[in-house]
Design a protein that fits this description.
It contains five helices and four strands; from the N terminus they run H-H-H-E-H-E-E-H-E. It is an alpha+beta fold. The termini are close together. The model has no long low-confidence stretch (mean pLDDT 89).
């Protein structure tokens, strides 16, 4: 599967951390049968290789009063794609940017504290973007399933 390049012990450690990233090295060691120090060394090696990218807190914007979450599909001319991606990358309201298949498209997710802030993103950042051929926006009403990263 996805983890063919990792030994069985690293796979077990990753599975435990995916279920609970706050699990202590001691708890992991008890479950996989190695010492806390050995777990720490393996986790650090996985981090150094870039297999484990980060530990984070995920905030659900739909649970915050007034927050607005939207997805944008932005089609640009080929020569403008890089500049558009960079402008969006620097905007704090924009949380994710993906280059997707199709005619020079970007899939962009933004979370704003209010409708007014989302409208400012549209009018001050997205509308004036260079080389935009087409832009569509979808407001997210609720989260049904949202998996972060690789699931084993």
């Amino acid at each position: 599967m996805f983890l063919d390049g990792l030994d069985e012990l690293d796979q077990k450690i990753l599975q435990l951390l995916i279920r609970n990233a706050r699990m202590s090295y001691s708890e992991i060691g008890q479950q996989v049968g190695i010492s806390r120090v050995a777990v720490k060394m393996r986790v650090q090696a996985l981090e150094k290789k870039g297999i484990i990218e980060e530990y984070t807190t995920v905030v659900n914007p739909q649970k915050i009063s007034g927050a607005v979450s939207c997805y944008f599909e932005i089609e640009t001319t080929p020569d403008a794609l890089g500049e558009v991606a960079e402008i969006l990358r620097q905007n704090e309201t924009v949380t994710q940017i993906y280059r997707v298949s199709g005619k020079c498209k970007l899939h962009v997710h933004a979370v704003a504290s209010s409708s007014e802030e989302m409208e400012r993103l549209l009018s001050h950042t997205i509308d004036p973007l260079p080389g935009v051929v087409e832009c569509s926006c979808n407001v997210i009403f609720s989260r049904i399933k949202d998996i972060k990263g690789l699931r084993l």
